[in-house]
Amino acid sequence: MNITRNNVDALNAIVTIELAKEDYQGNVDNVLSNYKKNASVPGFRKGAVPMSLILKQYGKAVLFEEVNKILQEKLGNYLVDEKLDILGNPLPVDNENFDWDADVLKFDFELGLAPEFTVDLEGVNVTKFKVVADDAMLDEQVEFIQKQYGKLVSKEAVEETSELVGTFTNEEAGINKETKVAVEAFRTKTNQKKFLNKKVGEQVTVSTKGLFEDDHKLMEHLGVDHDAVHGLEIDVVFTIQEINETEKAELNQELFDKLFGEGVVTSVEQLKEKIKEDAEKQFAGQADQKFVNDVYESLLANTKFDLPAEFLTRWLETAGETRMTAEEAAAEYAKSEQGLRFQLVEGKVMSQYELQLNFDEVKAFTVKLIKDQMAQFGQAEPDDKMVEDIVARVMSNQEEVKRISEQLMNDKMLALFNEKVKAEVKEVSYKDFVKEMYGE
Predict the structure, then answer these.
(1) Does the keyword Isomerase apply (predicted)?
(2) Domains of the chain, earliest start first
C-alpha cells in the first residue's frame, strides 16, 4: 500500500491511495470462505457450494466492500498522522474506466483544507458596556413589586389604570395570542382611549405601528419573532376577556420581609439598593455576552482568509440524506459560509491562545453551578454527599456536559478578551443597552 498527497493549492489537495492485491485479498478470501460455509444454494449441501459459484455471485460485492473498509481506515489514519485540518469530508474522484482486475488499485480523494491564518485580539477595538439601574428603572421596579404583591380587583369597564387579559388576532398574519397588557402600556393616548369604558367580550382594533414604546413588546404580546416585528404595520383585533385593577401593596416591613427575609431590608431606600444590586448583577452577564459577541464580530470582519468554496459546494451535494442539485448546494453554501467562518475563527482563538478544558475543570465548574443554584433556594451550605450525587447525575448526561462545557469555555474566552482586547467602557442604562443590543 502506498499513500501520497499532491497539494493543488493552499486550500485543495489530492490524496492517492494505491492498494496491491496483498493489501486486500486476504480479507476478501476470508469473507468469501465464510459465505461458502453458510451459503444455501438449491442443489448443493450447506458448505458444499463450489467456490466458483460463490465468486460469481458475491465476488465483486465483497471486493468492493472490503476495499472500501480499508480505504476508510487508511485515509482516516493518514489524516490524523499528517495532522491535516480538513473541511467537510474527503470526496472520491470518479473514474468511469476503473479496472477492478488490475494488479494495483489506485484511488484519488479530494480534500478541502482549512485556511491558515492568525487572529489579533490586541487589534480589536470594541465598546464594553457597563449597564446601570438608573432611578427611573428602580421606580418602575418598585411599582412592579407593589403591583405583583397587590390585590387584584375585577372591574366591569376599562379604566385608564386597568390591566386587560385578552387575545390579539390577525388571521392573515397568523396572529392569535392571548396576553396580559395594561392600558397605560399603549404608547399613545389615542389608542388608550379606544379601550376606555369597553367591557368583557368587546373588541378593539388597533394598528401595530407605534402601539408600544418599544417595538420589542410586540414580540411578547403578538407572539411574532424579532425579524418580523420591525416595521410591522397591520391592524390587530384585541378581544377583552378580563378587566382587572391592581391595588398596590403598601411599602411596609411586612412586604420587605416577604421579599428578602426578616429584617434584611427596612426602608424604601434599602429596597432600591437591593433591587439595584440584583439587577446590575444580571445586567453584567448580558453585557459580558455582548462583549464576547462583539469581539467575534470584529474578528470576523477583520480576519481575512479564503475557503475552498468550490470543493465545499460539491461536498454539500452529497453530504445530506438527500442529494442536492448543484444550484441547491451553492445556495446552501452561501447561507452557511458565515457560520463556517465563525467556527474557524472561534477554533483559532482556542488553539492560538491555548484555551482547553479537562474533566476536572468541568466537574469543578459543575459543582460551583450546583452550589450556586442551591444557595438561591436557601441552602447556603449544602451537604457534600448531596452535591456529589447531583453532580454525578449531571455529568452522566452528555447534553448537560456539553452545555456546561460551552458555558465554561465562554467564561474562559471572556477572561481572555478582558485581558487582551482594548475596549472602551461605556456606562449606559438598561433601556439604552437594549437599543445597543438590537441596533436601534
Answers:
(1) yes
(2) 2-112 (3.30.70.1050), 151-247 (3.10.50), 266-438 (1.10.3120)
